[in-house]
Amino acid sequence: MASLAVAASGLTFGTVLAEQTTTQTASAAVASDFDPGNIISDAAFYNGSAMSATSVQSFLDSVAPNCRQQSGGPVCLQDFSQNVNTIGAVSGRCKAIAGGKKSAATIIAQVGAACGISQKALLVLLEKEQGIVSTSRPTAWMYQHATGFACPDTAPCDPAYRGFAQQVYAAGLQFKRYQATPTSWAYQAGRTNAILLNPNAACGRKNVYIKNQATAGLYIYTPYTPNSAAMSNLYGSGDSCSAYGNRNFWRMYTDWFGSATGNGSPTGDVDSVTATATSTLTVKGWAADPDTTAPLRVAFYVDGAGEKTVTADKTRSDLAGTLGANNTKHGFEAELTGLSLGKHSVCTYAINQGRGANTLLGCYTRTVTSAPPKGVLDSVTGGAGTISASGWVLDPDSSKPGAWKILVDGVSKATGTADRTRTDVAKVYPGVGTTLGFAKTMGGITAGKRAVTLYVQDKPGTKYVKVASKSVTVTPPTTGKTGKTGSVRGSYDSVTGGVGTATVRGWAIDPDVWDPVKYKIHVDGVSTDSGVADATRTDVQANHPNWGSDVGLTLRLTGLSAGKHTVRVYFQDLPSGKYVSFGTKTVTVASATTAPPTSGDTGKTGKTGSVTGAYESVTGGVHSATVRGWAIDPDVWDPVAYKIHVDGVAIAPGVAKAKRTDVEAAHPAWGSDVGLSLTIPDLTAGTHTVRVYFQDLPSGTYKSFGTKSVTVTDPPTTGKTGKTGSVTGKYETATGGKGTISVAGWAIDPDVWDPVKYKIHLDGKAVSPGTANAIRTDVQAAHPDWGSDVGLARTFTGLSKGTHTVRVYFQDLPSGTYKSFGTKTVTVQ
Predict the structure, then answer these.
(1) Cα separation of 256 and 217, whole Å?
(2) What is the rounded distance in angstroms from the CA atom of residue 378 to the CA atom of residue 395?
(3) Do 157 and 74 contact (CB within 8 A), yes or no?
(4) Cis bond leading into 769, ω under 30°?
(5) ∠ CA 155-160-165, rounded to 5°
(6) Which residues lie below 8 Å from residue 435, measured CB to CB, with a gap of 6+?
């Protein structure tokens, strides 16, 4: 063995005879189940409440019922006791342990609880090192070197650590050192380690991928892994290169307590479930599976229905002590969106890989609320018949720009959406984005003192809420409606030919008015169309902000003959009413009967051809499947119609119009509304075939884009918490006042997530019961799985002066019995 300076190790190689005294049970270990990289799970090894002193004593009595003290020898372990000095706490390792005369069972139980090491693991350690648990003839040597601590294979045992209690505590503390500093030792979890087969280095090494910290700790303590000869004779000896310590630890644990690695089910935790935006809850936590270091899928259920799954692959450095420094990519964060206002149950499952079953990490009840919108009128300025207003708006429930409207003397004058960056506001209200500002000039305002009121839309509804108001004085306009004069201005940007069509684009504003400018169009010298230039042009608004964005001309002329045409655009100039020409352009219009041009408009697109696209994937969920793909048809601009067959049966058809910016980048002419994204509900668990068809125009036929298979699952079937145990908690205080008694405490039940019910007896008589759901963040810090609503806070009034007794009971499920947590005496004034 290595010396204490390198690693304080237990006996491994030379303890075969003592270890062979273990009785093989009906549930004996099977060599094929041994995984050298996962000897024992972290959950099993670091469970400091695995056994009480009473349980340990019962176990010792049952394992060696025929043990008898030999003449001149020490007593059997079940009868052993020792005076133990007070042991101080070691920060980050073990809590303090009070001194006194203690039995072996008490020593094992208290060390396990103080250091967070399973009492089962300590019993197995004692047995595999000295055979002291099952022997019928204990020796002084066994007690002096009980856990093999500071007894290296290559040197004598250190006398400073002799004694049963000293050995048990030193071993527990050492394993906590390994856990607290996982990268400081030769063997580390989350990586492949070359481990010796025997103290004789000539026997060689074996590469072992250590999957968890508990297994790494066993190898540091006992730095050998069994060879094939040792595993071929699981309850006996191997060959000259065999070592047995870690083999025997696993075998003995399995024989005595069942699987050391559990059933291979995932472990993890839900750190938080918080409302982060309108209709959104964000869930954070971690999940890992003892059968693999690969990231797991984590499934979320809201009100009993499958909501979404994510992959737990975010780095969580805080898991290094539990899973190993090289095995920390197991964190997850998921946004559950589209939730209605009110209470929701959110359950999180880690999806199993390999052996075991899905694990329920926790169920929490959270309330989705809507915070009121906010806004400020930074500046309101009156002009000649105008009011210019600027400021910012937001909805705390949303990261999208807020919708606003402005009323002048109660009459709506302007509407819009925040479109300006306001980082100053974003710093005060994180999570709402930075597009928060607005600026608007409103014309046609009557002179005089005016009330300007700002309203913001309160999402997720459509109601507008008043957030700010200011008064301003407006002067009479000097000319026209805007206080300015001048000729209409603008641009006739382009005319583009298609099949029997021509599309005209441009823009116009008139300094004399706020209203959109009227236009007329002449084709080949003949007036054909007229209207108002009110199409959206944000590029023009950027240069002429007073007039807004509704200043554009976008018009498609139809019914044109093939060939060249001249198209002239006129914009009206007020107040004269005269139409001013903005130029003439020539355009070529194609015929529908001629070969399609390479650009322009044949049909609607200027191209012809079959529908194209992709059926990309189908993903199985809980009683559902999600289909994704995209399609475009060169003959039309409209989104393509689809049909889907599941197991050969047609389901509801639809139109492929989901947003796909990646497809738009490759096919910019068709925009982004070309995607197929459909979740098919109400499917039975098992394998299904899903075929996708896209419609090809102008024929109207549906073209198959292939068939894919998908596996649909049932919901996870574990209970509410995935844990069992008695109700736990504390009856902390009963405080008397003037005619009152206030009772405080807390309780949690590992069998349920719901708050625990209580009953209280006052002077031996039952008073009204209740539920322990007061907020206790201090208890939550120690027991984060159950949240903060675990407190008992109750005040009784109208009590007589004098002494009273108060007894508290908490209900234990699933039995439903009420467990007493003690009686306190209190004086009422």
Answers:
(1) 21
(2) 17
(3) no
(4) no
(5) 115
(6) 401, 418, 419, 420, 421, 422
267-277 and 280-288 beta bridge pairing: antiparallel
Residue 788 DSSP class: S
Q: Which residues of 620-630 are buried (b: 16+ CB within 10 A; e: fewer)?
A: bbbbbbebbbb
Q: Which CATH number fits domain 267-368: 2.60.40.10, 1.10.443.10, 3.30.499.10, 3.90.550.10?
A: 2.60.40.10
Cβ–Cβ under 8 Å, residues 679 and 626: yes
- C-alpha torsion sign, points 395, 399, 403, 407: positive
Find out whether 552 and 536 touch, Cβ atoms under 8 Å: yes
Confidence of residue 418 (pLDDT cuts 50, 70, 90): very high
Q: Give the bridge partners for 736, in sequence order.
A: 741
Crossing angle of helices 119-130 and 164-180, rounded to 10°: 120
- Residue 636, CA distances (Å) to 372, 607, 633, 653, 664 in order: 44, 9, 6, 19, 15
Cis peptide bond prior to 460, omega within 30° of 0: yes
Candidates 3.60.20.10, 3.40.50.2020, 3.40.50.410, 2.60.40.10; CATH matching 374-474: 2.60.40.10
- Do you find a cis peptide bond into 698, omega within 30 degrees of 0? yes
Please state at what angle helix 119-130 crosses helix 104-115, rounded to 10 degrees: 120
279: left (phi over 0), alpha (psi -120 to 50) or beta: left
> What does the mean pLDDT of the chain come to?
85
CA distance linking residue 15 with residue 243, whole number of Å: 9
Nearest partner of 214 among 89, 97, 125, judged by Cα: 125
Structure tokens at 819: 């467990």
Long-range CB contact pairs, 655-661, < 8 A, 24+: 656/613, 656/629, 656/630, 656/631, 656/694, 660/630
Secondary structure (3-state) at 636 = coil
454: which 2 tokens?
Answer: 């700002």
CA atoms of 172 and 46, how far apart (whole Å): 10
Strand order in the sheet with 464-474: 411-417, 403-408, 448-457, 464-474
pTM over 0.85: no
Q: Locate tokens 């009100």: which residue?
A: 303
Asked if pLDDT for residue 421 goes beyond 70, the answer is yes
pLDDT attached to residue 639 = 86
Contacts of 228 (CB under 8 A, 6+ apart): 238
| Sequence-ordered alpha helix ranges (H) in 403-523 | 423-428
| CATH, domain 612-712, list 3.10.180.10, 3.40.50.10240, 3.30.1300.10, 2.60.40.10 | 2.60.40.10
Q: What is the mean pLDDT of residues 408-417?
A: 90
Pairing verdict, β 517-523 and 526-533: antiparallel
Q: Amino acid identity of 141?
A: W
Tokens 């197929």 appear where?
A: 676
Q: Read off the pLDDT band of 477 (50, 70, 90).
A: low
Measured at the CA of 56, the angle between CA 52 and CA 58, to 5 degrees, comes to 115
Q: Which CATH architecture has domain 728-828?
A: Sandwich (2.60)
Measured distance CA(518)–CA(502) in Å, rounded: 19
Angstrom distance (rounded) from CA 126 to CA 132: 6
C-beta of residue 571 within 8 angstroms of C-beta of residue 593: no
| Exposure of 148 in the CB half-sphere (CA atoms within 13 A) | 30
Predicted confidence (pLDDT) per residue in 99-115, tens digit: 999 999 999 999 999 99
Residue 419: CA atoms inside 13 Å, Cβ hemisphere, count? 12
Q: Report yes or no: 696 and 642 within 8 Å, Cβ to Cβ.
A: no
Are 721 and 753 spatial neighbours (Cβ–Cβ below 8 Å)? yes
Residues of the chain with CATH 2.60.40.10: 267-368, 374-474, 489-589, 612-712, 728-828
